[in-house]
Prior knowledge:
Helix content is 20%, strand content 35%. It has a single domain (4-189), classed as Nucleoside Triphosphate Pyrophosphohydrolase (Alpha-Beta Complex), CATH 3.90.79. The protein is built from 4 helices and 11 strands; from the N terminus they run αββββαββββαβββα. The strands form 2 sheets. Strands 1, 2, 3, 4, 5, 6, 7 and 8 form an 8-stranded mixed beta sheet that branches. A 3-stranded antiparallel beta sheet has the order 9-10-11.
Amino acid sequence: MFDLNLLEIFLQTRQRRVLELPDFKKAAVLVAVLLEPEPCLILTKRTNHLSTHSGQIAFAGGGMDAGESPVQAALREAHEEIGLEPSLVQVLGLLDDVWTPAGFHVTPVLGVVSSQAVLTPNPAEVAQVLYVPLTDLKNIQPHFEQKTLPASARVPSSEARQRAVPHLYWQGIDIWGMTAFVILGLLEAAGLATIPEEG
């Protein structure tokens, strides 16, 4: 069961993983949970013509503008990408920072979306909006792919180029990389799953 009160308390009292990556571009994503008729994550399938991460499954989000907070950026990007009105999102808190080999330092913003929300994907960026039940996600056994990042990849100095990249297979769809890292972190924070040992 997705207990919002317990999760909100957890987010407010725990020590969040904060990355210091001054050479990476700051970005934010909205980890949007729609509670009715059952708790679902709102994900997007990116269009195939985008310059980065084309065709991949992702959270709505993107680079932060100057002076923006992660919450402001995540809500703005969700409005631009899927037409989600910021006033219909109850922000619960921030999840652990993550990084991508494309050079982004990403802060995930967890929010609950009103059942009144009507989502309209921006065809320039989003091919499809997906509603993925949390009960499905918590029952998926992640597959970790051992991957050596290429020389062109951006890697924090504290990290190795050999990385275990998670894949979550849902209804024939491969949810992987940063999106999968964030989902696994959310499931653990919500007490719905324990992140397995990589391998």
